[in-house]
């Protein structure tokens, strides 16, 4: 069912009705009846109020009636946020109520503001406002405008926050005197929009606001804007085209008459600095480059102090900590280009050793869905659990590498794996999960992470920056167990082994006997269980300032207090020598957090 069409004229009439211009204390009635002459054939006397000599019982003075409208505590006062035009009409309805006729409205108003009234159609009734110069229709439901219904006297037209997908409808019969056009926060999209910003349609345009749309073609857009000889103020921020390198410099150098770009005054020093940049079109790569850095991680609880000492048969427990964040996925496959990337599901499938995977039919020790392991610069290493199914248990890969194969190929298989993970470890749709290098515990864990993201599909990038990312700190717990060696009697090759094998075992036995009784020899071979992942904290990071022209976003993610006095005491006891006092230094609870920085490559 299509939504009901609401016309502009209907919204204006409804607004005038809500002002109650013909009800007390406005209009005429028992509260002011003696002030006006009865109607006669002499029409001009209708508008002349009678001088106030004496008031009849029950009537109010004009000053008292105006006070009821102007006082903030009066029940007849205007609601907060009302315009100056509304107050003027209320006062006029008290002083001269007989003037408030349709002919007065159509000839008096030079500015009309209808904001957030669900207007979807600008009808021809608007043409009756013969002196209208400013029309504000922001935050409505307008998709198209028939410009033949716009008064030719219009100088300012604001259509912010509507649903306009193309300027083509505005260019059919544009108001010839228009000086300001505001189309921010709409849905303008496509390379053809540059054809609709030329002097053929807007010969007198001084100010143009196209901010926060989906415009991507900077060069053609600037070429169209160069024909607007009177253009002095321009807003393009919030568009994908504003994310490309050298956007501001190229725009300033191309539009020499521009005074303000994206709410920032264009200084003469900027014009000198960017001189000649408009002729270097090879610098305008149709891509955006964003640099993500992750600083230090502080206040993490050392979980190993809470574990008991392992016995000879294990388990031997190790802990690692790392940070994840999701970032928009490029259509060309960002996961295969960058390192430290967890796949869209990023799940562990824990299988018994030597068992068969019910999803893939392959024999495997454990499976982790990983799409990449390192960056081209070799600055990022990632612990991968599987190179090829069934071939190896664990590998650490650094330097440039090909993406690892995925263990599942269908949506049904991924759906089975997803419940195994904390939802905070699953990226949102259309994004890829990136991770720092897992590191062991320390009081300050240096992540030393830096990743440059280069994306060519700018429209999804804009949507991602508007929604922001989520930073998560993960604890990875790995249990290792000694591998039990098969007995010689069970082996089919035992009969083929000669005396040399027995001598070798006797030598190894002698080595063990020479060691002290207090020494423990760690097992030579350990098998590892799939890591147990625990989310220590997650925090959203706002990235919208990058769209508004900010060069970087820096934030400290504070996840609260997770360390206790008891845990810190155990950590200190383990670190100090046996003779040292564990209370030699003050211990307090610590807040847990880490620093992040997101910046755009200039």
UniProtKB/TrEMBL annotation:
Task: Report the superkingdom from the record.
Answer: Eukaryota
- Stretches of Basic and acidic residues bias are at 498-528, 593-602
- PROSITE patterns with a match to the protein in the record: LRR
- Which keywords does this chain's UniProt record carry? Leucine-rich repeat, Repeat
Protein's UniProt keywords contain Repeat = yes
Checking Gene3D superfamilies in the record gives:
Ribonuclease Inhibitor (3.80.10.10)
Q: Which SUPFAM superfamilies match?
A: L domain-like
Record flagged with keyword Repeat? yes
What are the transmembrane regions? none
* Region listing for Disordered, in residue ranges: 484-531, 579-602
In Swiss-Prot or TrEMBL terms, this protein is called Leucine rich repeat containing 43
The protein's organism comes out as: Bos indicus x Bos taurus (Hybrid cattle)
